[in-house]
Each structure stands twice: as structure tokens, then as C-alpha cells.
Amino acid sequence: MKRWLLIALVAGIASFSASSSSPVVDRGQVAHLERKFDSRIAGYQPLDPFELLGSTRGFYLEDYGVLFTSELNLVAAAVVTPFRPAFTPEQIEQLHVKKVARLQDLKQMMRAQMVDVALGLKTVPVDQRVAVGVSIFRFGWEDSRGIPSQVLMEAHRRELLDFESGKLDSAGLDKAIRTQEF
User: Fold this and answer.
1) Quick one: pLDDT band at residue 77, thresholds 50, 70, 90?
2) For residue 77, is it within any domain?
3) Residue 2, in any domain of the structure
4) Residues 57-77, buried b or exposed e (16+ Cβ, 10 A)?
5) Helix (H, G, I), strand (E, B) or coil at 182
6) Per residue in 30-45, is it b (16+ CB within 10 Å) or e — as a string?
7) Residue 13 placed within a domain
8) Confidence of residue 21 (pLDDT cuts 50, 70, 90)
């Protein structure tokens, strides 16, 4: 009886150790790329920056690839304070125009982050995806026409590497990246 119990225990340990294989990506590499995206966002127009709301987070999703998420306000100074309790209609319109223009800059940053991730996480299979999602904060009083609350971009790692190596031009990469706005 003890012999069968020992055999079952050894078999159970062997199957557990086989199923708990090492992770595909190193957490240190992911953390480095999180900080790199935060720095890219924080470095945007130092005198009139984006406002990063929390740190970027990266995840490896088995059989999918990697996903990095972040949240920001496209205009850091767009806040109601005791000294400015409300925005005038003209200020609201100016803020809207500025945010729409900055949305394109954000998308370029996201695209650059995707290429950085594809290059930095060499252990992610090339047929898996790299995705970057950004939630865009806005106040209820803002004019939100044309400004999504979230932007998600994704592409296969192979396509991002092909762009970096010159096998794919910028227009080809734009076609390869699937962008969704919510």
C-alpha cells in the first residue's frame, strides 16, 4: 500500500513540475518596457505634457502574446480648481481641439512602444501578438467628439520585427497594426 502511495506521489510531482514550466517572458524585461513607455509619455512636451494616471502595466497572455496598458489625460492642465471653477465655452472648444491633435501623437507613441516591445521581448513567439491599450481620461463637462475613451493597437510580433529590419515600410506597418477605438 505504501509503495502505491509513493508511486502516486512521485507521478503527481512529476506531472505538476511539467505543467509549471518557466514563464515565456522575464518580468524584469516587462518592467523595463513599462518604465520606457511611462518615460515616453512623461517626456511628451515637457512644458505642456500628457498626464500619466498610474504606471503602465505589461502582461504576457499565453497563446496570445503581450499586452501593455496605461491611462492618461491628453492635457494635464485641464482641471477645475478653486481658482478656475469652470471652463468657458471657448476654453472647452480650445481644449477639445488640442486633445484631438494630441491623439495622433499618442498613437505614434503607442506604435513606437509596440516596436520596442517586439524587439525587447525576444522570447515571445513571432506568431503571437503585441498589444498596447491606453485609456484616455476626460471630465464629464468636456466635448468628447472624436476622442475615444480607449485606444487599442495590436499586431503580430513578426510584422513589427519586419518593420524594424526594413522588410516592411511604414505604410505596410500601418496596415499590419489593427487599431480599435472605443
Assistant:
1) confident
2) yes
3) no
4) ebebeeeebbbbbbbbbbbee
5) coil
6) beebbebbbebbeebe
7) no
8) low
